[in-house]
Amino acid sequence: MFDLFNKIDKCIVCRHEYTSMHVEASPGISIHVCEACIEAARYNFIWICLNCGKVYMRPKALMMAKVNNPTLKKAYELCEHKQIILGIDICIKCNPRGILNCMNTDSMVC
Ligand SMILES: [Zn+2]
Ligand SMILES: [Zn+2]
Predict the structure, then answer these.
(1) Is-contact 52 65, C-beta < 8 A?
(2) Residue 26's beta-bridge partner residues?
(3) pTM of this prediction?
(4) Ligand 1: distance of its center to the CA of 18 in Å?
(5) How does pLDDT run across 29-44, given as a tens digit for each residue?
(6) Mean pLDDT of 56-80
(7) Edge-to-edge, what's the strand order for the sheet holding 85-88?
(8) How far is the CA of 3 from the centre of ligand 1 (A)?
(9) Contact status, residue 107 vs residue 92, Cβ threshold 8 Å
(10) How far apart are CA 44 and CA 57, in angstroms?
């Protein structure tokens, strides 16, 4: 999932560190993420809106405890031990009236 990129750019999650590390947030879309933020992805689900660039981070344990939908719960369990930074097409901020996406949107407070 992670490999070296020859270009150095600002980490899209913390917008602070410059890094050459990047992840594929969506097929064909690479984003720069620094080591600390990749480490944070171990304990948090991280979503990045590919439309506005807003980053959402939620502790995995909290999300797991909250979710009632069995399909969603299964999906969370599958990535519990993975470091996932997921690109989403649109977020709550881009579309406040809410296209539902893969997230449990009622826990998404900006
Ligand atoms: Zn970072
Ligand atoms: Zn957005």
Answers:
(1) no
(2) 29
(3) 0.73
(4) 8
(5) 889 999 999 999 999 9
(6) 88
(7) 55-59, 44-49, 85-88
(8) 15
(9) no
(10) 6
Rounded distance from Cα 11 to ligand 1 centre (Å): 5
> Distance, CA 75 to ligand 1 centroid (Å)?
25
* The two structure tokens encoding residue 84: 């996932």
What is the Cα–Cα distance from 95 to 37, expressed in whole angstroms?
Answer: 26
CA gap 77, 95 in Å, rounded: 28
| Positive or negative torsion for Cα 31, 35, 41, 42 | positive
What's the gap in Å between 39 CA and the centre of ligand 1? 9
Do residues 101 and 107 make contact, with C-beta atoms less than 8 angstroms apart?
A: no
Note the ligand closest to the C-alpha atom of 15: 1
